[in-house]
Specification:
alpha/beta, Uracil-DNA Glycosylase, subunit E, 6 strands, binds iron/sulfur cluster
């Protein structure tokens, strides 16, 4: 639900105190999205991990470092983008967030999208793909653009996948180059 006077700071304050779902009981910190509230590209991952939970910031662990390196390599400045997750609190042992947790947290994500109004939403990994677009196989669809309800989505893998399979680093970078090329073609500043 979006409100005309809604702000990223307001969402942040609400997320930090949120007790809507059971994930609040295990967290050290809730992890609101962060970045440029006027970003042209928004990245959406699955959920905070251990480092994110400790620091209260998204993508600051190993997966975040990989994402930063890949963004650097293709010429995307992370600070100019907006980065968030499907759920804002870490699931125990990094399990996949449950449907009800995703549903209850979705209000924050919808409001983030409404305020930032990115030109392209870059979906990172299977869980975000399933939650946002109902998709199943990210590997079978990565590197593709999807238009849905007037929004443009781009699909790629989650950087955490590279921790377990370093060959996927090239895959993520290749996809991000496709994203940059499309931004250039559409005259979208990044
Ligand atoms: S995951 Fe989302 S809905 Fe659940 S407690 Fe955290 S902020 Fe609230």
């Amino acid at each position: 639900m979006s409100r005309s006077n809604d702000t990223i700071d307001r969402i942040r304050d609400e997320v930090i105190k949120c007790k809507l779902c059971n994930l609040c009981t295990n967290r050290t910190n809730a992890v609101p999205g962060e970045g440029n509230s006027k970003a042209t590209i928004m990245f959406i991952g699955e959920a905070p991990g251990r480092n994110e939970d400790e620091k209260g910031r998204p993508f600051v662990g190993i997966a975040g470092k990989i994402l930063d390196e890949c963004l650097d390599n293709v010429g995307i400045v992370r600070a100019r983008t907006y980065v968030t997750n499907i759920v804002k609190c870490r699931p125990p042992n990094n399990r996949v967030p449950k449907d009800d947790e995703r549903r209850l947290c979705n209000n924050y994500l919808e409001r983030e999208i409404s305020i930032v109004s990115p030109k392209i939403i870059c979906i990172l990994g299977r869980t975000a793909y399933h939650s946002m677009l109902g998709g199943a196989s990210i590997l079978g669809n990565r590197g593709k653009f999807v238009e849905r309800d007037g929004r443009l989505f781009f699909l790629t893998i989650h950087p955490a996948a590279i921790i377990y399979n370093n060959k996927l680093r090239d895959t993520l970078e290749k996809d991000l180059r496709t994203l940059v090329a499309e931004c250039s073609r559409l005259d979208i500043p990044i």
